[in-house]
Structure formats: structure tokens, C-alpha cells
Amino acid sequence: MKCNPSDTPSPEQVDIPALRERYRKEREKRMRREGEGQYFRPAGQVVEDFSADPHTPIKPRDPVNEDIDCIVIGAGWGGIMAGYYLTKAGVTNFRHVDTAGDFGGVWYWNRYPGIQCDNESYCYLPLLEETGFMPSKKFADGWEIYEYAKSIPKKFGFADQALFHTHVKGLRWDDNIKRWRVSTNRGDDIRARHIIMACGVLNMPKLPGIEGIDTFKGKLFHTARWDYDYTGGSYREPKLDKLADKRVALVGTGATAIQAVPNLAKYAKHLYVIQRTPSCVDARPNPPTDKEWAKTLQPGWQKERQDNFHRGAMEAFKPGEPDLICDFWTEINRNMAAKMQAQGWPQLSLEKFMEMRDTEDYLVMERMRNRVDTFVKDPATAEALKPYYRFMCKRPLSSEVYYPAFNQPNVELLDVSETKGLERITDKGFIVDGKEYPVDCIIFASGFEVTSALERRWGIDVVEGREGESIYDHWREGPKTLHGTTTHGFPNQYFIGYIQGGLNASVTEQFGRQGEHIAYIISEALKRGVQAVETSQEAQDAYVRRFEELLPDMSAFQAECPPSYFNNEGDAKAPWALFRQWGPGWSDFQNMLQAWRDKGDLEGMDLRK
Predict the structure, then answer these.
(1) How far apart are CA 258 and CA 280, in angstroms?
(2) What values do phi and psi take at 412, rounded to 5?
(3) Residue 427, phi then psi, degrees to nearest 5
(4) How would you class 418 by CB atoms within 10 Å of its CB: exposed for 0-12, middle for 13-18, buried for 19 or more?
């Protein structure tokens, strides 16, 4: 595939020192000393408890009392991929447990109008060759992704084993029986040999703790619990006709908002968009899948494409490698490759390479800012919508209809960067710059618990290991693992997520490879009659030491990023920061794990029969 030439400005057209200072100032004015404390999880006092399910009726069932080989906590992509690889490894005596009413995770809960994949479906949706499925277009709609996610457990035979609408309350290791005791809100007493924590990263919504939020007398909900009974329309047909006489406020301008705003703007009597930090929003051509192209694909095409996407989005293209994706995710490295090729691919030190890449980052972001002016007619609104920070400080986005929505007379952008958020919510509306704005409905597009403390994200009351230690205390300052998968003191417990390992540009590919590694360990333990597998203290210490030695220094980059879930609201040393990764890169990390598995002795693990 040949990409269109980039229209980024030249270095001579951009004052990088001035931009660096502007980035710093924009960051500082948005910083709040409360950090993650500015958000809270509702439990009925403002909106319904987020464990409540508006999509699927909860059916009564008898408590489960059983011994089982494995429990997978979570039925989103991490849990689905774990189930697939367990099945492939011959482990079939397992269950998924999830608070949702079905498989799907973030795609089960999030059904807001306009929801689509925001990186290309051919890479994001896993196991396309294994299932024979092909997405209908480059950026698939949410309902299509949800249906596909549900199809995988059915196809590979583990759909009927799940316990849905079930909230795990406690996990306690019982050394007498060498099993985890799993307790739930449904009265279950399950004794699991192995536990896989696939709790997800976009599973626990959060609300900003705005003064007066509990006094509002109108309608209030989070985008992850969209109320179509109130707005009109449905998941697949989001005709929000019940908003025709409603004044609506949408709080947040991240990935959800840029997809929801155009639909709200189309139907609401008046829409206020409350923005603390703008997103960078690029073009989003979304053609239907070319059937003739699909016929030409050879076995192994998806892995080739995923690897190409990963290098384009996170590392660097190889000399002569084409960009198969050709969108905003790969633009920086695509431009880098073109310039390196023009120079004959010189051998650069890491320092010089990163200096060159940093320059390209500033140029691409300047192009993103210039793009706003081509769509938004009002100069003040256009300026407020421009992102002044580095690429990947916030999740990069794309839309053909987000910026034009602000030209509609019923849409009003309220920038609250100076006050670091809404000043107050009243019984009738909200206050910005001392002025009250009456509204009928407030919708929070305020994100999820992504990099906050573990107990906030998992929502499990008790997780106690071999000596009765809480995992929350064990990892209070961040994870300590072997391979990002297991930790000392917590036998037969495994973790899927952004935990001290390799990072891939596609979260489903990353979670899948973690699931594959975990399934290998569990299957080997069961084959060998091993009752408890636990990382030794020595192996864990050695891995953590090596991981820290290889960790790229991201401090300069982070210093130019505004507060967001990427850095736990501006925390300079966030224990669960997303971009802590294996320094030599994804391929090196996978090769290391494969060599470890090929050796066959579960090196670094204490095995008890």
C-alpha cells in the first residue's frame, strides 16, 4: 500500500522551543493536586452502582460450589484470549466470571451512540484467520465488535461455562488445599487451582468529584452506561429523538466524546461540550472492506499486519518496509522512514534517533492543530480545540464529523482548563466562570480507572496470597513480577494487562500473548501434577532489576503531557503508568518468553506437588 504524502510542516516553519514552553504551560494550568482523588466510583448516591447492568436482565441462579482447574476473572478481550489459549493448550475445566451479562468487556458496557474501533479493525480484532471473520470496514462499529467478541467463546467451546452478573468479592489462597477460594456476591464458593486476573483496563468507569454532583435534579449518567430509554434510539440505531427538547451537557472530550458529540449535536436542543484538555483528532476515512483485497490475503497476513502496525505506531519501520496501515497512528514513523531513506538510512545513535523523532512529533502535532482551522469557523472555538502537547500524551483520535459539529448553532464548547474542571453542579445545571448553565441532562464521558490504584480498578474487596498478604499492599508502589505474569507470594495467580512486560500497539495482541504464556504455565503444571506454581523471590528480583535497567527514560516526554489517565492525572512517577515497557521492544520480549518456554523447566518457578 502506498500512503498519501504527509502535509506536515517543515522544521523551519515550526518554533519547537516555543512549543515546548507552551506545552509546559498548558500542562501546569491543568494540574490538580488531588490527582486520582478528583474522581470517585459511585455506589448509588449519585447514579446507580456501576456494577448494575442496564443491558441484560439479571437472572437468579443457585450458588456454585465446586473445585475447578481455573477461574478467569474478566470476560473482555483479556479473558476471551485467555480462554482461547487455555482451550488450545488442552485446559478445558475453567470458567469465566464477570459482572457483565455476557462476553465483550468494554464492548459489552460501552454502547454509546457512534461507538467504533479507533484503530483499524484488521489489526485490533484478534484471531481473524482462525475464525474466518472479516470486519465490514476499517474502523468497525461497536456492535460488530461486540458480536464478534461473543462469537469466539462459542466457536471454541467455552461460552457456556461462564458465570455472568457475578462480582468476585474475595480471593484467598488456602495453602492447605493449594487452591484459591473464590467468593462472590451470588454466594458462590469455588475452589480454583489457578486464577487468571483479566480484569481489563477500561472496565471501571469514574466520575469527577464535582461539588454539588449529588444535588442535580435532572438526568445524569456515564457514557459507559448509556440510557437509550432517556435519549431515544438504540445501540445499532442511535436516533436520539427524545433529546429534541433537552439541553444536554457532555463532560469530557476524550475518545468517547469525539464519537458521541456528533450524534448528540444532531438531536439535542442544545449541547454544551465541557472540555478540560482537547484531543488531537485527525482524518478518519472509513471505507468498507474491499472484498477483492480480502481474496488476495495469504496465510499469516494478520500477524504480518499486526507486526507492521506495531512497528509503525510504537517502534520504527525497517528499511524498505511499507506502511500497511497508512493513518495517523503510523504517521510519525512513516515520515521518519521517508527522511531516513532520503539520507540513505544512516546509522544513528539512539540519542540522535530520538532527537529526530521528537522533532517529527512536534511537526505532526502542528499539522493536527492547523487542521482544526480548516473545519471550525469560529476562531475562538478553533483555538480552544487545538491540542498543545506531544503525540500520545492523550490517546490520538480520528473523526470526520467531530470538528464540524461545533459549527452548529446548538453546540457550544465550554473550555474549563483554567478552572481545571467544572466549578460546581447545581440542582438545575452547572457553573463555569461564575455563570450557571441550566440543563436537563448531564452525561459524563469522564473515562475509566486505567492507571489508578489497583483496588479502585479491580473492585475486589480481598485478594490475599500465601502468607495472607494483600496484593494491593504487595503492589502498592507498582508491580513486582516475573515476566509481568506472576508474583512471589501469590501461587497459581496470573495477570493480564499493562504489568511490567512488553507493550504492543494493539491491546488485543498484547493480551493474547499474555494469555498464551499463562496457558502454557497452567497446562504444564496440570500435566506434571504440580499443585502450586510460584515465582521465586530470586527470579522475581532478577527480572525486576533487569526490567528497570532496560526501561526507557520517559521523563522528558511526560513533563510535556497534561494530566490524563495515561499518567494517572499528572503523577510524575505513576506506579501503573501505561508506557513502562520492556526496553528492547516487543519482539525481543516475545523471543525471551518463547526461549523460556522452549527450555521446558519453568525456570524461576518454585513447583510444589
Answers:
(1) 10
(2) -135, 125
(3) -70, -20
(4) exposed
| Residue-wise pLDDT tens digits, 208-246 | 778 888 899 999 999 999 999 999 999 999 999 999 999
Whole-prediction pTM value?
0.94
Q: pLDDT-derived band of residue 33, with 50, 70 and 90 as boundaries?
A: low
pLDDT, position 383: 97
Q: Whole-angstrom Cα distance, residue 409 to residue 404?
A: 11
Third-level CATH fold of 29-44+205-284+375-444? FAD/NAD(P)-binding domain (3.50.50)
Superfamily in which the 65-202+450-608 domain is placed by CATH: FAD/NAD(P)-binding domain (3.50.50.60)
The kind and range of the H/E element at 515 are: helix 507-527
CB-based contacts of 527, cutoff 8 Å, min separation 6: none
Give 442's strand partners.
Answer: 220, 249
The predicted structure's pLDDT at residue 451 = 61
> Residue 293: what pLDDT?
96
Contact 196, 72 (CB under 8 A): yes
**Average of per-residue pLDDT values in the chain:** 91
Residues of the chain with CATH 3.50.50.60: 29-44+205-284+375-444, 65-202+450-608
